[in-house]
Amino acid sequence: MTPAQLRAFAATVRLGSVKAAAADLAVTESAVSIHVAHLRRELGDKLFARTANGLAFTPGGLRLASRAAELLGLQDQTILEVKQAGSGRRLLRVAASSLFAEHAAPGLIELFAGRADDLDVELSVHTPQKFATLLQTRSVDVAIGPRPATLDAALTCTHFLNYQLIAVVGPDHPLATTANAGTAELRAQTWLLGPSAVGRTGIVPSILRRLGIPEHNQRIFQSHAASVDEAKRGKGVALAVAFAVTKDLTEGDLRRLTGPQLPARGSWNLLTLLDREAPPAAAELRRFVTTPRATQAMLRGTGVTAGRFRPAIHVTLWS
Q1: CA-CA distance, 65 to 43, in Å (whole number)?
Q2: Rounded CA gap, 280 and 258, in Å?
Q3: Partners of residue 237 on adjacent β-strands
Q4: Tens digits of per-residue pLDDT, 189-235?
Q5: What residues form DSSP beta bridges with 270?
Q6: CA neighbours within 13 Å on the CB side: how many for 13?
Q7: What Å distances lie between residue 23 and 15, 18, 181, CA to CA?
Q8: Contact at 8 Å (CB) between 239 and 129?
Q9: Is 59 helix (H, G, I), strand (E, B) or coil?
Q10: How far apart are the C-alpha atoms of 17 and 205, rounded to whole Å?
Q11: Which residues have CB under 8 Å from 288's CB, separation 6+?
């Protein structure tokens, strides 16, 4: 059983066809078929069959699919660790929800990375729905965001910070002087939203669903800061993390709205594999993130130094 064979099978499972797997791997369809045929002979299992509705996997095929992703992830992690050992440096890969990445990650990462001269931290933004898969395939070492509805037995979850999400408008907005906006009024507004509005997981999608905000009234920006800046100009209602807009509220650049479902309380949690599987740096961050110093850094951090923090931000807005 070779990595090339596992990679071909994993791509076939992920994409649902040999043709799509070949295109994804930039090889021929016959090459993918040969790899799968080798696996079938070695394992003595058909693995999958073609049906009118696509591919139907055998129980053994489904088991191999989960193992293939894990084994390939371990291979990539091992290559990375060997290279790091040679260079004398460590790399901690952190996946985060867009809300955490924008508002709290910079201060936390700067302080945590500053504690060790040999540590680099790479941050990538993903929808929380992908956290479990990213961790189990060793694509990342840590995931930070909302607590999952169901926690996989292979993962551990550490709660470390609560926050409040509020609705804000500019001082010239028609609702700026409204003491308590009703549901009908809120539904009629233009909502200025950051990337956390994409998908169905997290506090922002939950608020939009409960209020029944129609999609044609939602405008999604590449950052939450951009949506708040647009709200300052009276263009609509924005959702903001309370501690991030304290100064704007105090100086009168924003006005806070109250109403049904508002404000809302969210929480940030750190997910890793169990201790025996997680890299040492992931366990270190899990312990550190609950300390008062870490909390202060997240709430008041001013940014990160280029030498310590290597951002790799990947945000998909429209998928």
Answers
A1: 13
A2: 44
A3: 191
A4: 999 999 999 878 889 999 999 999 999 999 999 889 999 999 999 99
A5: 144, 158
A6: 21
A7: 10, 9, 52
A8: no
A9: helix
A10: 32
A11: 112, 115, 294
Instruction: Please count the residues of the chain.
Output: 319
Burial class (CB in 10 A: 0-12, 13-18, 19+), 12: buried
Question: Which tokens belong to 210?
Answer: 């409960």
Q: How far is CA 239 from CA 72, 167, 177, 236, in A?
A: 39, 5, 17, 10
* Cα–Cα distance list, 4 to 9, 290, 311 (Å): 9, 41, 30
Q: What is the DSSP string of 85-97?
A: HHHT-EEEEEEE-
The pLDDT tens digits for 64-118 are 877 787 777 777 767 766 765 665 678 899 999 999 999 999 999 999 988 888 8
Give, in order, the Cα–Cα distances in Å from 158 to each of 65, 100, 184: 29, 15, 38
For residue 181, how many C-alpha atoms fall within 13 Å in the half-sphere facing its CB? 26
Q: Residue 41 burial by CB count (10 A; 0-12/13-18/19+): exposed, middle or buried?
A: exposed
Spatial separation of the C-alpha atoms in residues 317 and 125, rounded to whole Å:
11
pLDDT (tens digit, 9 = 90+) per residue, 237-276? Answer: 999 999 999 999 999 999 999 888 889 999 999 999 987 7
Tokens standing for residue 121: 């931290």
247-252's contacts with Cβ under 8 Å and 24+ in sequence apart are 248/168, 249/168, 252/171
Please state the separation of Cα 76 from the chain's center in Å. 20
In 3-state terms, what secondary structure has residue 310?
A: strand
Q: Which amino acid is at 141?
A: D
Cis bond before residue 292 (omega within 30° of 0): no
- Full-prediction pTM beyond 0.90? no
In contact, 18 and 32? CB cutoff 8 Å? yes
Instruction: With CA atoms as reference, report the closest residue to 222 among 292, 146, 317, 297.
Output: 317
Token readout for 128 is: 């929380």
